[in-house]
TrEMBL record:
The keyword Signal applies. The keyword Signal applies. It comes from the Bacteria. Keywords: Signal. Residues 1-23 form the signal peptide. PANTHER family: BLR1237 PROTEIN, TRICARBOXYLATE-BINDING PROTEIN. InterPro entries: BUG (IPR005064), Bug_dom1 (IPR042100). This is Tripartite tricarboxylate transporter substrate binding protein. Belongs to the UPF0065 (bug) family.
Length: 360
């Protein structure tokens, strides 16, 4: 299926034309819309929501007021459970999803009471992911050398855990035949500090940290990049991340290691992890059952939002990572891939967690 991304330079005119009839019928004049953010006020999802909400107010018909309500707890589960239970399909309650929302659902956590796959996305904000390692450990920046070196020399990895946000990167390491000594229960910021102190030899971050936090360590020779998760282009293909076009993707290194492209159930799990960690890193949704007229009104409005010049400011681009925003069918496809996993892929993920990390 061909995908099309919306950028500030090119608004999806055809999509706007197809939704204009709906947009004329929906009017939010005098209304207040609640945007549920299932994380704390200072977190990335909250910052993302506060960047977009004022612009969405201006682009929705009737210029409603959007209030942001932070509901912390359970790695986003508490807030999204409440959204699923209480939000009416009238366009007056929307929610922000992030990686934790998807992981909890995919892993079948008992606290999850939300029908993730039934939510209707109208925006997906991708964020790239890069893995890196210390040169003092013997890493050189040559991908073939570094993969082989890490296969033969077990590195320490410090992070939150294989059943949490670290899952895609740790799965990539395993696909490449790299075994790690994991130290878990540590936040992303603390993980980077441990790496900088030399307490771990490999780590990862999202690309929002690249320019200010990571690139200086590459420039001074402290570290080298190992791989990225990749980037999904307009044709739905995983290609090199535009932020780091000289760094190989995990699928590229897999082919070097195994002599053939990733396939079968491993590829399906990777695509799911990729969709969660990169494509739908931050997603805005309407509740299940929202009528088409309201859905398409939001789709048209968010297309205008992402085309606005305010989102081209340095501060906005830093928050959005410089990536094109996914709307329309791109958002729908990304959310479906991230939230739907076949029984075979789920069995493979469960096997990996148990066999590699002893997690039942």
């Amino acid at each position: 299926m061909k995908h099309s991304y919306i950028t500030a330079a090119a608004v999806g005119i055809a999509a706007l034309m197809s939704t204009v009839a709906y947009a004329q019928e929906v009017d939010f004049s005098g209304k207040t819309i609640e945007l549920i953010v299932p994380y704390g006020e200072g977190g990335g999802s909250s910052v993302h929501a506060r960047l977009l909400a004022p612009l969405l107010e201006e682009e929705l018909p009737g210029h409603p007021t959007i209030i942001i309500r932070n509901i912390e707890g359970g790695g986003s589960v508490r807030g999204i459970n409440e959204f699923a239970a209480r939000a009416k399909p009238d366009g007056l309650t929307i929610a922000a999803l992030a990686t934790g929302t998807y992981y909890s659902y995919i892993l079948g956590e008992e606290t999850v009471q939300y029908p993730l796959a039934d939510f209707i996305p109208f925006l997906t904000s991708p964020y790239g992911v890069v893995s890196y390692g210390l040169t003092s450990f013997g890493l050189t920046g040559d991908p073939e050398h570094d993969v082989k070196y890490l296969q033969e020399n077990k590195a320490v990895y410090v992070g939150d855990g294989p059943a949490d946000a670290d899952m895609p990167v740790l799965y990539c390491f395993d696909l490449l035949g790299i075994k790690l000594n994991g130290v878990f229960g540590v936040s992303r910021g603390e993980s980077r500090q441990a790496f900088m102190r030399g307490e771990s030899q490999v780590n990862y971050d999202n690309m929002a940290s690249w320019e200010n936090e990571l690139k200086p360590m590459v420039d001074d020779g402290t570290m080298v990049t190992l791989f990225t998760m990749g980037f999904q282009n307009e044709n739905g293909e995983v290609v090199r991340d535009p932020v780091l076009p000289d760094t190989a993707t995990c699928p590229e290194l897999y082919e070097i290691v195994h002599g053939e492209p990733m396939s079968g159930v491993e590829k399906e799990v990777y695509e799911n992890m990729f969709a969660i960690r990169m494509v739908t890193a931050k997603t805005l949704v309407l509740p299940a059952g929202t009528p088409d007229d309201i859905v398409q009104t939001y789709q048209a409005a968010i297309e205008r939002v992402v085309a606005r010049p305010e989102l081209q400011s340095p501060a906005a681009q830093l928050e959005l990572g410089g990536y094109p925003q996914g709307t329309g069918q791109v958002a729908i496809d990304g959310h479906r891939t991230a939230s739907v996993m076949s029984p075979e892929a789920k069995a493979e993920l469960d096997r990996w967690l148990k066999d590699v990390w002893n997690i039942d």
